[in-house]
Amino acid sequence: MIALKDISKIFDNGLEKNHVLKSLSLSIPEGQFVTVIGSNGAGKSTLFNVISGNLRPTSGSIVIDGKDVLRKSRSARAAVVACVFQDPNSGVCPELTIAENMALAYSRGKLRGLQWAIRKKDIAFFKERLAEFDLGLEHMLRKKASLLSGGQRQVVTLLMATLQRPKLLLLDEHTAALDPRIAKQVMGITKKLVEEQKITTIMISHNMGDAIAYGDRLIMLSGGEIALDVSGNEKQALTPAELITRFES
Question: Which pTM does this prediction carry?
Fold first, then answer.
């Protein structure tokens, strides 16, 4: 589904060069859920931004679903790559209602003509999808997104990101700004959406427990390189304490 080959990213301010990603290669098959961990400065966010199109790598290639996307902008990649960020406010338009936000997401990649922006059958569909999570959001479709709690906004954002099944879902510490109880709830919803739709997913996390508990594969970045890449029983046998030890080694 996604193949990164020899990706390097060097930030040069004219005085010094910061080699953030160093000839990083990574292949992820369709439907795999990968968690990515690493200390501050390890290259996690840079990797995320290179894949999404926010940053152009200094060298290397990026192939998604068999197509080279290196020269495609973030807006062009949005047809196949969906992103959910740490800030609950970044995934929705606060002055639009839940229904309006979802309608925008639902129209992604579709031809648009002169028609009602939100049709009755769309409202029924949105209600059905929101009701799956037992948060009462299906009764708030006319409510502005700005009036939702952070957790509610992240759930709406997650659903918006997956209404049109993306080729790749990028989750950038999407529960970090939430309190532990809500974060656990959002992670459960994330797991449900990803597994039901078999979405190829990369999730950056600082939470060692989540990194082990969720996903099929765990990757640790260190100094812009892959320091650990485990899956299956080897991944499940890890403990948060062991991961912290690896961070410090």
Answer: 0.90
Q: Is residue 88 part of a domain?
A: yes
Strand ranges, E, within the chain:
2-12, 17-28, 33-38, 59-64, 67-68, 81-84, 168-172, 201-204, 217-222, 225-231
Q: Domain of 32: which CATH number?
A: 3.40.50.300
> How many domains is the chain built from?
1
Distance CA 138, CA 160 (A): 14
The model's pLDDT over 49-91, given as tens digits with 9 standing for 90+, comes to: 999 999 999 999 999 999 899 888 888 888 889 999 998 888 8
The answer to the question of residue 144 being in a domain is no
Domain that holds residue 234: 2-93+149-248
Is 109 contained in some domain? no
Sheet with 2-12, side-by-side order of all strands: 17-28, 2-12, 59-64, 67-68
For residue 123, being part of any structural domain is answered with no
Instruction: Judge whether 227 and 194 are in contact, CB under 8 Å.
Output: no
- Phi and psi at residue 154, to the nearest 5°: -65, -35
Closest CA to 154 of 126, 173, 131, 127: 173
For residue 12, give the 3-state DSSP assignment. strand
> How many Å separate Cα 210 from the centre of its chain?
14
Residue 127 CA: distances (Å) to CA of 135, 191, 235: 12, 20, 37
